[in-house]
Predict the 3D structure of the following.
Amino acid sequence: MTAREYVLAEFSCPKQLLHVAKACSDKGYKQFETYSPFPIHGMDDAMNLKPSPLGWIVLCGGTFGLLGGFGLQTWVSTVAYKLVISGKPFFSYPAFVPVTFELMVLFSAFATVFGMFALIKLPRYHHPLFKSKNFRKVTSHGFFLSIDSNDELYDEESATTFLKELNGTAVEVIQDA
Amino acid sequence: MTSIIEKVKRVPLVKNVTSFKTVTDIVSHPMEMKLPSWWLIGLVGSISLVLLLKSMIAYLVWEGVGVWGLNNPVGWGFAIVNFVFWVGIGHAGTLISAILFLFRQKWRTGINRFAEAMTIFAVMCALIFPGIHIGRQWAAYWLFPLPNSMAMWPNFKSPLLWDVFAVGTYFTVSLMFWFVGLVPDLAAVRDRTTSKVKQVVYGIFALGWRGANRHWQHYEKAYLLLAALATPLVLSVHSIVSFDFAVSQLPGWHTTIFPPYFVAGAVFSGFAMVVTLMVIARQVFKLKSLVTLHHLECMNKIILVTGMLVGYAYGMEFFMAWYSGYEYESFAFINRATGPYAWAYWIMVTCNVISPQLFWFEKCRRSIPIMFVVSIFVNIGMWFERFVITVTSLHRDFLPSSWDYYTPTWVDVCTFIGSFGLFFTLFLLFLRFLPMISMNEVKGVMPESDPHYEKEGA
């Protein structure tokens, strides 16, 4: 088996990158990726990406915080450490609302941040594309598209010519070795 | 044929910026410029104040809270005032990053990073005060529901405990929000710098970000979710801080208007602090093309609105004191405006209600010296608001025999000054070592970022 490789090309502006992404999808490529310094409106559709499932992860985190927070307070106040405060009942559920709410938000936020990093598989410090000097522009003002050798349609020569035809500049093949 | 699409004219969010690279250059400038001498002098000054803060805390822990000016009816003094003051300042950041994001107020992109950093540092200053106020600081962990050998658990019916959770959550969520926003910009610094050390350090925190659209997709979703979570959170935090007062039975504290009134006051003081610091930062770091007068004007409008809300609350408190027919409540408020602390009350009214009225006039909203002075006034006024609420309500107890006058000691004052040292130390480090404007978000609101963008005349 040959080493995994990427064909990387640079494009001039968000508009062109969107157009090229559509062209790649239309040609049948699936394992391609666009890179930009900021999210580009409409790119998810152009690349035929499924919507992010992050909301469901956050729902789980939030539910855990909500039930866990309420459960903790109930257990502490009615079982573990019964305190008589101004003759109020041990199970004073209205008084549990603020902490329950805060813990729901806290665990939702944890789920959001850690869920997001899990979905995008970061941190990862060794991506092959970092070998390209030109690619360093991507976080400032560069717009790039790469086609992955894992794609069924991948063929180094045809991918290279395809991206060149679409006015890609600085087309290069980057090998993962 | 002329084009049938007519574009709605909007105030441009960036000025004299020709390309995305220019944005990176402008934002990176403070991190790459020769270390300015005023920065170093400022840092040394701030660190000295941090040392002052540390010695005051050490002295307090050694001697006990007797070194403060607290007396028998006034059991809450500077520590609580400073806590509420700093937490309040910490409200602008999340308001800008979360609420204005949900409302699609794109001008927020120029100032959100800055305001979020301010939030985090202000909340750090705030957290010191309740921590040292508890008297036996070594028992501070009792505030958290940690299993311990005493089989003891906190009292969840206490608003002070709600506060621990509210402010703790707020700090954690604000920090994560800030960090998530920073990741793409840290990657930009990593890719830009030629220094090996910087590449490694920024590289570690950039987590290997490479701007892939599959990443942006989840990233944007996460940002939206965090904004949606932080919005009720920011409203809840100062509401819960106000419960510390409102849930008690004390005239002057026991009012239902407190939660919205505190939230408005928090936003008011937070925005004032952002204006104070931003006016200076955009000048010395040449950020005027990204933080335009339009941005400052928008913030001044928010200061006017929240200032009016706060003024309304002051008036409504008096109305309710009279309308309730409750003698003690009426006394508390008349005493507030005419009693021994009338000086503090009228400083508060002058600074918070009268001074922002200048912002009705466009000339004043867009004048740098005027907005700077007003924002300072608001900062002072909002500190006095907390002083008035805390101290005036306490110093006249139900029993006239226990009435007393509260005066802070030098330890109180030095601890407060020291907390500014901590704030400015962190802030100066932030200005030098992190991108103080969110590059990826500013680029994202430039007209050139729209895939339908057509060059003028093209």
